[in-house]
Amino acid sequence: MPYTHHSHSGQFCGHAKNTLEEMVQTAIAKGFLTYAMTEHIPRPIEDFYPEEKDDHTPASLAKLFDDYLAEAVRVKKAYSSQIRILIGFETEWIRPSTLETIRDVLTKYSFDFFMGSIHHTHTIPIDFDRITYEKAREAAGGTDERLFEHYFDEQMEMLQALQPPVIGHFDLIRLLSDHRDADFKDMKGVWDRMERNLSFIASYGGILELNASGLRKGLAEPYPCMPICQLFVGMGGRFVMSDDSHGIDQIGTNYTRLLDFIRKAGIKEIMYADSDASCTDRRFPNAGFSSIATDDLIQLPFWTATHL
Fold first, then answer.
1. How much is the pLDDT for 202?
2. Phi, psi of 125 (to 5 degrees)
3. Among residues 225, 45, 217, which one has the least CA distance to residue 123?
4. What's the pLDDT tens digit per position in 86-122?
5. 273-282 pLDDT, tens per residue?
6. Which family does the record claim for this protein (predicted)?
7. DSSP 3-state assignment of 247?
8. Are 236 and 271 in contact (CB under 8 A)?
9. pLDDT beneath 70, residues of the chain
10. Domain that residue 120 falls in
11. What is the pLDDT of residue 182?
């Protein structure tokens, strides 16, 4: 039974493709039995991405999120006999007002879980393009090491404020850097911050996302990289699988490589969001997390299918 906990559709995300329903239909066709929908939360106009500036206002972006929730509920009901669908969202963490936005979203809607992610440091996107990344690096002091430190400090703020059930692409900051395949161990300030963050995640039972999109974008390893995963394993940390798909062609992409990585990292079990599992987070009464042993995961017929 393959699982993914992170996805976006072109219907509700400006840098994705295909409709939400097409995404679910493709997940079914590829043999997924668990599929989570996690569109981005609304943002103020100063935090719009370039592809949104000509098409949206803050009001229309907020309405788009309303529309997403309505469509997610419809699709979940329509395909409930074929696939387990979880309805969630992915956070941003940009400026102080972001926390209020997230709290409003959690109050207004009912979700199964959410993905706690950050895509900005010093309010500047760090995974959009190289030019924008360099602006963030200059704002942090001019080096990758300083920017990494600031990224993990801002991540810690997000973790403490929200305690997200799942933490998205933990080390996304390396994607556009000059250290994209570094192991971080030669950056003591960075490593200490990552260890601090992972320890906090483990303390409240948070789960790290193993995100295959890093492989799709040319990294040697998924998010998070091997040293981080092994450090979290040593803390008793837990993991879920994700493809972070932004179109039907990305559903399950590089999952065979992700499975190989899981085995090499010494991860003995994989968690997955489950509407039949006991709830341990009062914010999300309709779903919990179950687990499957990696040895059992490997035996599933999904891995021998031609779509991989």
1. 98
2. -60, 135
3. 45
4. 999 999 999 999 999 999 999 999 999 999 999 999 9
5. 999 999 989 9
6. Belongs to the PHP hydrolase family. HisK subfamily.
7. coil
8. no
9. 1, 306-308
10. 3-304
11. 84
Q: Return the number of other C-beta atoms located less than 10 Å from residue 283's C-beta.
A: 13
Q: Residue 295 burial by CB count (10 A; 0-12/13-18/19+): exposed, middle or buried? A: exposed
Which single residue is written with the structure tokens 């963030």? 136
The two three-digit tokens of residue 97, written as one number:
């007002």
Residue 294: its pLDDT value, please? 97
The two tokens of residue 88 are 């969630």
Looking at residue 307, its pLDDT comes to: 57
Block residue for tokens 């719009």? 48
The length of the chain in residues reads 308
| Burial of residue 143 (number of CB atoms within 10 Å: 0-12, 13-18, 19+) | middle
Long-range contact set of residues 73-76: C-beta below 8 Å, sequence gap at least 24: 75/20, 75/21, 75/24, 75/37
Q: SS3 for 146-210, per residue?
A: HHHHHHHHHHHHHHHHHCCCEECCCCHHHCCCCCCCCCCCCCHHHHHHHHHHHHHHHHHCCEEEE
In terms of DSSP bridges, do strands 207-211 and 166-167 run parallel, antiparallel, or are they unpaired? parallel
Based on its alpha-carbon atoms, the radius of gyration of the chain, rounded to whole angstroms, reads 18
Output DSSP code: residue 217: T
User: What pLDDT is recorded for position 185?
Assistant: 85
Residue 55: the pLDDT is: 82
Q: Find residue 7's DSSP bridge partners.
A: 245
CATH of the domain at 220: 3.20.20.140
